[in-house]
């Protein structure tokens, strides 16, 4: 192709057609520029497609991550409800002066268990941050994702930390007042002295405080679950565009 254009120029010069030569040269320059612009446009389109594909992969990973967290929260909320039932049995025994070791033995472990610990993964969001948040083209969605992981999630974890405040004292009290036994149903706490335990002011306060904590944890987890589901819906809508 280059030899073909060169031959045309040489013919025009040899024939003395200087005006036509310059017009042809300008036209050739224009063609070259157009070719370069087209090549740049194609390159930009290819780069844009790569960014779109990477964004899609990142958002799909985030969806998977959030769905796993939602399942985990649903399971944790169910567990809290189950443990609150055990706590209610113990509270009822205290209020009604019911000293029945065989009846109560299977409830102490769940009644005293700390239910504030839940590990919610942020791998999907961290992957997006590592690749650069600008990869998300929808600015409104990007702000929502950032607010969720940088503000809403830390607020949840801060509230849940209430359950770990007295964990050392709780464990010490359990060691001093119970023997831990294992069977095919799991772990049970057998009190050394049931009557004394049910009249222990620290134990009574601990059981009631644990129930209040669990009630609060259920509320904030339900709220965070709704926020997570709303975030999921927003991302899925973006992926379906």
How is this structure best described in words?
It contains 9 helices and 2 strands, in the order H-H-H-H-H-H-H-E-E-H-H. By secondary structure, it is mainly α. Strands 1-2 form a two-stranded antiparallel sheet. The longest helix is centred in the first third of the chain and has 78 residues, at 18-95. The two termini are 44 Å apart. The model is unreliable at 1-5 (pLDDT under 50).
Layout of strands and helices, then pairs:
Layout: H1 2-14, H2 18-95, H3 101-104, H4 108-112, H5 123-131, H6 139-160, H7 167-177, E1 178-183, E2 186-191, H8 194-198, H9 201-239
What keywords describe this structure?
77% helix; mainly alpha; disordered N terminus; two-stranded antiparallel ribbon; single chain; rod-shaped; 241 residues
Order of helices and strands: HHHHHHHEEHH
List low-confidence stretches: 1-5
Q: Alpha-carbon distance between the termini? A: 44 Å
Tell me the major beta sheet.
2 strands, antiparallel
Our estimate of the beta-strand percent is under 5%
- CA radius of gyration is 34 Å
Which strands sit side by side, in order, in the main sheet? 1-2
The coarse overall form would be rod-shaped
Structure summary:
The protein has one domain (2-239). The protein is 77% helix and 5% strand. The chain has nine helices and two strands.
């Amino acid at each position: 192709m280059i030899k073909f254009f060169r031959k045309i120029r040489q013919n025009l010069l040899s024939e003395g057609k200087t005006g036509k030569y310059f017009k042809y040269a300008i036209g050739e320059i224009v063609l070259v520029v157009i070719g370069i612009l087209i090549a740049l446009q194609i390159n930009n389109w290819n780069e844009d497609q790569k960014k779109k594909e990477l964004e899609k992969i990142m958002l799909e990973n985030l969806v998977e991550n959030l769905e796993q967290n939602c399942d985990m929260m649903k399971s944790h909320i169910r567990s809290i409800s189950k443990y609150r039932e055990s706590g209610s049995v113990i509270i009822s025994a205290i209020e009604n002066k019911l000293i029945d070791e065989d009846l109560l033995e299977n409830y102490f472990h769940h009644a005293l268990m700390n239910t504030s610990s839940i590990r919610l993964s942020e791998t999907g969001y961290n992957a997006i941050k590592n690749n650069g948040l600008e990869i998300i083209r929808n600015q409104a969605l990007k702000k929502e994702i950032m607010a969720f992981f940088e503000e809403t999630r830390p607020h949840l974890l801060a509230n849940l930390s209430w359950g770990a405040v007295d964990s050392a004292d709780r464990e010490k009290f359990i060691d001093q007042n119970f023997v831990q036994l294992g069977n095919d149903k799991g772990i049970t706490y057998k009190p050394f002295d049931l009557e004394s335990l049910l009249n222990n002011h620290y134990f009574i306060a601990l059981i009631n405080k644990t129930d209040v904590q669990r009630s609060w944890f259920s509320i904030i987890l339900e709220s965070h679950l709704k926020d997570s589901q709303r975030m999921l819906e927003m991302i899925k809508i973006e992926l379906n565009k």
